[in-house]
Every structure is written in C-alpha cells, then in structure tokens.
Amino acid sequence: xxxxxxxxxxxxxxxxxxxxxxxxxxxxxxxxxxxxxxxxxxxxxxxxxxxxxxxxxxxxxxxxxxxxxxxxxxxxxxxxxxxxxxxxxxxxxxxxxxxxxxxxxxxxxxxxxxxxxxxxxxxxxxxxxxxxxxxxxxxxxxxxxxxxxxxxxxxxxxxxxxxxxxxxxxxxxxxxxxxxxxxxxxxxxxxxxxxxxxxxxxxxxxxxxxxxxxxxxxxxxxxxxxxxxxxxxxxxxxxxxxxxxxxxxxxxxxxxxxxxxxxxxxxxxxxxxxxxxxxxxxxxxxxxxxxxxxxxxxxxxxxxxxxxxxxxxxxxxxxxxxxxxxxxxxxxxxxxxxxxxxxxxxxxxxxxxxxxxxxxxxxxxxxxxxxxxxxxxxxxxxxxxxxxxxxxxxxxxxxxxxxxxxxxxxxx
Length: 412
Known about the structure:
Elements: H1 2-30, H2 37-43, H3 48-54, H4 58-86, H5 90-101, H6 105-116, H7 121-135, H8 143-168, H9 173-188, H10 214-229, H11 236-243, H12 247-253, H13 257-272, H14 276-279, H15 287-296, H16 301-314, H17 321-329, H18 342-368, H19 378-402
Helix pairs in contact: 1-2, 1-6, 2-3, 4-5, 4-6, 4-7, 4-8, 5-8, 5-9, 6-8, 8-18, 9-19, 10-11, 10-13, 10-16, 13-16, 15-18, 15-19, 16-17, 16-18, 18-19
C-alpha cells in the first residue's frame, strides 16, 4: 500500500510539472488571454480529464504558475537589479544584459503575468503581495533610501521591458553592447555630478484629445476599450457602441480590427512620446526626468494602458508585430526624420531605444502600482541623461572631424 501511494504521488508531481511547463510555453506562444486549459493539458501529454482533475479552470492554473514558478523569478531579477545598483560593474550589469539577451521562458512569462494581472481579479489577488512588498515605497522611507529604491525599481522595470521586447521583437547585439556600457556609466554617476539649467517637458501636451471626426473618435474609443479589457476583450461591436456608430461604419474605414488598432497605435504613440523640437533638447538637464514623470502621471493613463495592451497583443499577433516593433525602438519615427546617417544615426537610434525603454519601464510600473506617480525618477533619469550626454559628445566630435555631423542634439 505504501509503495502504491508513493507511486501515485510521484506521478501526480510529474503531471504537475508537465502542466506548468506547458503553461509557460503557452504563455510565450499565445499569451495569457488566449491560453486554454485543454490545449495546455494536450501539450503536457495528459488527457482532458487528468488536466481538469488538477485545475478547475485556466485562472487556477495561472495562479499556481505565478506562485510556484514566476514570483520567485521576479524576486531574483529584482535582486540582480539591487546588485547592479549597489556595485555597478561589468559583472553585475552584465548579469542584467544576459537576462535580456538570453531570457528563460519563465522570465518572459513572468513579465506578461505581472502586466496582465491588473485586469484578471483572481490573478491580481495573488500578484498583489509581490507588488506591495517589492514595488511600493514603504511609508517613512528616508530620502537617501528613497533615491536608491527608485533607481532599483527603475532598473527592474527597464529590465522587464527589455526582456519582453528583445524576446518577441528581435534582440540586437549592437544595441545590447551599447546598453551595457550605458547602464554601467549611468549607475556609476552620483547626483552630485549633475548640474545645469532645468528644462521640463509639458507632459500635458502628450495627452491625446479626440477631435469630432469619426477616425479620431474611433482612435480614442479603441484606446479606451483595449486599455480596459485587453486586445482580445475589445470587439469591434464594443468600440462601435462607445463611439455611437455601427460596426459596418468601422469596416468602411478599416478592413480589419488589426488595421484599426494599428492606426490608433501610430496616432497615440506618435502623439505621446516627444515632439521633434523637444527631442533636440532631450539631453538637457531634467528633460528625461520630466518625460518619465509624465509616464507615471494619471493624466496619461489612457495611452499607458492602451500601448501596454497593444504591445502584449503584438507579441502574439504577426499582423500587429512589425508596426509595433518599429514604434518601440523609434517612437513616432523621430530619429528617421533627423536626416543624419552613419555612426550618428546608429547611436541616436540606440539612445532613443534606451530612453523609450526607460519610459515604458515607468509606464509599466504605473500599471502595476498607482504609487508610481508619487516617485521622483530623477535619481535614475538624470544619471542616464548625463551618461548619454557624455557619450554623445564623443560621437559628435568624431562625426564633426569626419564632416558628417547633422548636429541634431544640443545638450546643456
């Protein structure tokens, strides 16, 4: 009897592991929203009955996946961020870059689970303790400790963004080399080294305001519905009902839901990130800090939630992916319009990608915890700005010597 019980227990454990492995794979393949318990069981090599004997529904599986596989990994990545901030060098920052270059399946699944949980109540209940303990600033934290807290969480969020995007939207070794050097230089800078005139962006200019025409109204309503319910929960009928038109009126303008979403994405991303006139001063004091603060502001909740959900959907949708991928690396096509070439163009592309990822990191933090709007991101942002400004001066000097400089930036 004892051996028989032990054998069944071992089989049950093996089945659990197989289901969890298959669930992680399904997250990467189709995403949390499209995951099916039946398909997970089939991938695990189990019968339909055996899978449902273990999990009542897919949400129960997601909860178990978070508890047993993903939460611990999130903590490990946060601890890697702590080491990099405490002692920034080739080894500690290299650990972060390796996570981005070669993420494990559970790393990517963890990021998607954290970002999706906000609209899945049963999952949010399980994820919330991690958010409260690790991502929210404890009351009464001294100013010096708060600065370190913000740096660590900014790096953690930046790492999450990069893991997700480099996995789904193609890793670039040249960019990762640039990023490693930039992060080392950023984390080695003390705020005492920073001085200069402050120039802030007007973050309200980035808020999308719809006009009276149908296309503009559809853009706004698409962003609202997707931001609240996710891409798969946003039907053409729901969008049409919010605008006050028929689904047929939408299909006269757009051939498909994907075409509508992409048009909204281009419009909102192009509006929200930064104007060309502001980009010329992106390396001025406090400009990046202002940009990050704008990302955390509740005024930008509409585009924050919409762009997040569109990025999540594009990871598993081949129609959305090319456009979204291009906008992630060069939001609004700002670098493409500068008219520079060669080393300057490559460097500016990497710089824009880095600043955009830092912005998205703050944006993602703000979707997980409302307390992000109260954090001062200048500790991370100003160090990043100064590290980029110093390197840009070297790149520009070399280009001037070659006679190829377009002088698109004027850092103070």
